[in-house]
């Protein structure tokens, strides 16, 4: 699948390798988390860039150094492929998790707090810089403050910890929302926006003027709770999930979030695809994959890209729009109709009207993210007429049903309709 996204945006694929399991490893070159695991890094395109997590929950400095050295050595292009080393994962949970039956005891005593974490993090960063030869002289980023979704922000506060920990690191926050329904949660734009701005807005506002990028390290529509199984699969593999993904990604860009690492794992209910067939899950492409392709095509390869959310019209509260600009010129419009449709009645629709477009725009190429069976549709989802399949192993499918609509005197020359549970992209065509 990674072969698709890079050509769409002109940027290398970035993979974050980490999580609670990585934070708790004990490295042994001859064991599973050793040479056999490291060899997988050589299977990726040598232009792929990585954020690699090194353990802090298991706070063994020598082991951490050995693991960092081994990971860098396993990358075909070494530190040229290393975007960051992420030290630890969700330290706010160290004093309370994991709990039985996942593990016998928490990672830290109950009194463990931000000051303890900062001290451990700074020691680990210093130790890595001095102890890993490949990092000497490198402009190395160490990702910090990788908090959990439910972090208590008035205790684990970015601004309060700034001077002590992240002056040389990126800020990463994990996010995983446990949604209960398509209509009420997953396709609820106002909920999506409210959740994102309340969770991330203050940190972004603080970090941006200081030149520290804000990255979301783990994003998924749901991950379950503790050791319990994830929520029902159909909710997260549907057309509605694709629309949620597109809306989330475009809004993240408009907020100034530098990168979003979507969670991907074997047997994860919300993964974009299942890479292999297991006893629990067949190999397959899932609905939210199409939201990623939509977002990647919206970014495009034009460079100097900026995105702005457009105001919601009270007459059509389900219509969500974003404008994309390259070097200050309008090049894309995304229109998402987030109205839930169950596929049984006539599909509601809204006509999209554009006026006042620049004189150099002669047309708009219109592509659709859709499915014939409605919001909960699992099969027959398509983007611009294309459908990906497990049998193709992620290769780009043939075909394209995009249409070009002329622009006359700054307006669309014919109706463009956004049906319920559908997303449109309008690409501006200039002389």
Automatic annotation (TrEMBL):
Which stretches make up the Beta-glucuronidase C-terminal domain? 322-424
* Gene3D superfamilies in the cross-refs: Glycosidases (3.20.20.80)
InterPro entries annotated for this entry?
GH (IPR017853), GH79_Enzymes (IPR052974), GlcAase_C (IPR031728)
User: Protein name, please?
Assistant: Beta-glucuronidase C-terminal domain-containing protein
């Amino acid at each position: 699948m990674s072969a698709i996204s890079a050509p769409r945006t002109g940027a290398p694929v970035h993979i974050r390798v980490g999580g609670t399991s990585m934070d708790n490893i004990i490295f042994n070159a001859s064991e599973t988390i050793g040479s056999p695991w490291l060899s997988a890094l050589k299977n990726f395109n040598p232009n792929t860039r990585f954020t690699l997590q090194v353990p802090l929950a298991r706070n063994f400095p020598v082991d951490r150094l050995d693991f960092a050295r081994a990971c860098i050595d396993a990358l075909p292009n070494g530190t040229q492929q290393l975007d960051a080393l992420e030290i630890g994962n969700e330290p706010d949970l160290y004093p309370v998790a994991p709990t039985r039956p996942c593990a016998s005891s928490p990672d830290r005593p109950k009194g463990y707090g931000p000051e303890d974490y900062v001290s451990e993090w700074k020691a680990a960063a210093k130790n890595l810089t001095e102890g890993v030869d490949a990092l000497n002289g490198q402009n190395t980023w160490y990702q910090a403050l990788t908090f959990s979704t439910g972090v208590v922000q008035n205790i684990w506060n970015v601004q309060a910890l700034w001077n002590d920990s992240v002056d040389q690191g990126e800020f990463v926050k994990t996010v995983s929302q446990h949604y209960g329904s398509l209509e009420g949660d997953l396709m609820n734009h106002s909920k999506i926006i409210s959740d994102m701005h309340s969770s991330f807005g203050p940190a972004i506002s603080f970090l941006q003027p200081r030149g520290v990028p804000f990255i979301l390290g783990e994003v998924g529509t749901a991950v379950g709770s503790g050791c319990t199984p994830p929520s029902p699969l159909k909710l997260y593999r549907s057309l509605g999930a694709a629309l949620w993904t597109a809306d989330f990604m475009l809004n993240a860009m408009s907020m100034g979030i530098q990168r979003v690492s979507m969670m991907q794992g074997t047997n994860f209910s919300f993964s974009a695809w299942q890479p292999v067939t297991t006893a629990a899950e067949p190999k397959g492409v899932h609905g939210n994959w199409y939201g990623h392709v939509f977002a990647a095509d919206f970014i495009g390869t034009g460079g100097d890209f900026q995105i702005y959310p457009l105001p919601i019209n009270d007459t059509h509260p389900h219509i969500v729009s974003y404008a994309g600009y390259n070097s200050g010129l309008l090049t894309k419009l995304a229109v998402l109709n987030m109205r839930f449709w169950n596929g049984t009645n006539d599909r509601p629709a809204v006509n999209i009207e554009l006026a006042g477009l620049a004189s150099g725009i002669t047309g708009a190429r219109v592509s659709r993210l859709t499915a014939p069976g409605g919001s909960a549709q699992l099969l027959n989802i398509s983007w611009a007429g294309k459908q990906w399949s497990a049998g193709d192993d992620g290769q780009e499918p043939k075909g394209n049903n995009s249409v070009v609509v002329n622009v006359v005197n700054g307006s669309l020359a014919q109706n463009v309709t956004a049906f319920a549970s559908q997303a449109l992209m309008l690409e501006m065509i200039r002389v």
